[in-house]
Amino acid sequence: MATGTKAVIFAVLIGNALISLNANPIIEHVNEVLPMRMGTDFILANMSIDFVEHSSADEIETVVAEIDERIKERSPQIKRIFIKAEKRKIG
C-alpha cells in the first residue's frame, strides 16, 4: 500500500475516534489532525483541539486520555499522540 494511502487511512481512523468525542461537552471543535509517519511501524498523531473556555485542567486531562486510548485501540501503529489546546481560528 502506498505511503499516501496509509496516511489517509490513519487520518480516517483518527477522525472516527474523534467523532465519538465531538459529543463531549468540553470539546468545542477539533481544529486539525495531522498524522506523521516516523518509521515503518510508528505514527505520530498531532492534533489541535478547541476546548470550552472554562474547562478545568482535570476535565481536559480526562478527555485527552480518552482520545489517546480510543485512537491507539483502533490503530496500534499510532505510538504517540500530541494534543495542542488551541482556540479555533475563524476567518
Computed structural class: alpha+beta
Overall pLDDT score: 80
Write the CATH architecture name. 2-Layer Sandwich
Query: What is the CATH first-level class name?
Result: Alpha Beta
Helix content: 40-55%
Dominant shape: globular
- Number of E strands: 3
Cα(first) to Cα(last) distance is 37 Å
In the CATH hierarchy, the third-tier topology is known as Alpha-Beta Plaits
CATH superfamily: Cation efflux protein, cytoplasmic domain
Radius of gyration: 13 Å
Strand order of the largest sheet: 1-2-3
As residue ranges, the low-confidence spans are none
Number of helices: 2
Biggest sheet features: 3 strands, mixed
The number of distinct structural domains comes to 1
Taken in chain order, the helices and strands follow as HEEHE
How much of the sequence lies in strands comes to 25-35%
Descriptive labels:
alpha+beta, 91 residues, 34% strand, Alpha-Beta Plaits, 2 helices
Q: How would you sum up this structure, described in words?
A:
- With 91 residues, the protein is α+β, with helices and mostly antiparallel strands.
- The protein has one domain: Alpha-Beta Plaits (2-Layer Sandwich), CATH 3.30.70.1350.
- The protein is 41% helix and 34% strand.
- It has 2 helices and 3 strands, in the order αββαβ.
- The chain has helices spanning 3-21, 57-74, and strands at 27-39, 42-51, 78-85.
- It has a 3-stranded mixed beta sheet, with helices on one face.
- β1 and β2 form a beta hairpin.
- The radius of gyration is 13 Å and the shape is globular.
- The model has no long low-confidence stretch (mean pLDDT 80).
